[in-house]
Amino acid sequence: MTYVNPTSSSPAVGQERTEERTPSPPEGMERDRGRGLLYLLPLVLLALTAWTPRAQADSQPLKQQLEDAVQAALPWKGATVEVGKIRVVGKMPAGDYRLELDERRLRRRVRARLVSSESARGAWVQAPVTIEVPVLVADADIDADAAVGSMVRVEPKTLDGLPHGFVTDTGELDHKIARRRIKAGQVITASLLEEPVAVERNQIVTILVRRGAVKITDRGVALQSGKRGDTVRVRSASSNAVVNAIARSNALVEVP
């Protein structure tokens, strides 16, 4: 006895199973499609080769050129330069080019023009830049009117955060005193410094006169107070004459 499952999808006796199939494209069309893909593949590979490796190859030398140009434009010895990701506006020159740096923007960003003999338009490049400058900072608290020269150290600081008039050369501290109290670690600026008073009013001073190889000295009294380099009036003790003299150092004035 044969058992027949009523839910079976098997065909009834005497019927043939038919399957629906997607018609295959003609053989010639399949060949044409394959040829088209083969023709496109070299073009895609060529585009990738021309774009990606060129960008990678050009970025490093251009970065070094920008850093060298910024370094040469900086007035501070020992400054370091680090250029970030470069953005090119326009078409990169295909051959040799000249880099013209825009020196007006050198705190946060660097901008330069690439000029080529083959193209009058050229291209612009810009990138973030970090510049560190070795500046003088207070090694300890410095009281007002105290000499500054022996109480500083050199410390690299980012240019973008430095105050106006920062000092990098210890020679600028010669004969200088603190105008007001300076805190330890504070960047030394020109506004924090001043010349000490070289001559006080009513102070006994030495008057120096130079005439060629001859030097003449006299004693006198300062009628004015003045810092080094200031012109003050002094009275000669020997002649009682009042002359203008330049304050040179403590208790020394020179008649020009």
TrEMBL record:
Regions of compositional bias (Polar residues) in chain numbering: 1-12
Superkingdom of source: Bacteria
GO cellular component, one term: periplasmic space
Keywords of this entry: Cell projection, Cilium, Flagellum, Periplasm, Signal
One GO term (biological process): bacterial-type flagellum assembly
Gene3D superfamilies assigned: 2.30.30.760, Antifreeze-like/N-acetylneuraminic acid synthase C-terminal domain
All residue ranges annotated as the SAF domain in the record: 133-194
Composition bias, Basic and acidic residues: 16-32
Localization in the cell: Periplasm
Main location: periplasm
Protein name stated in the entry: Flagellar basal body P-ring formation protein FlgA
Pfam families according to UniProt: ChapFlgA (PF13144)
InterPro entries assigned: Flagellar_FlgA (IPR039246), SAF (IPR013974), SAF_FlgA (IPR017585)
Keyword rRNA processing recorded: no
Organism encoding this protein: Persicimonas caeni
Region (Disordered): 1-32
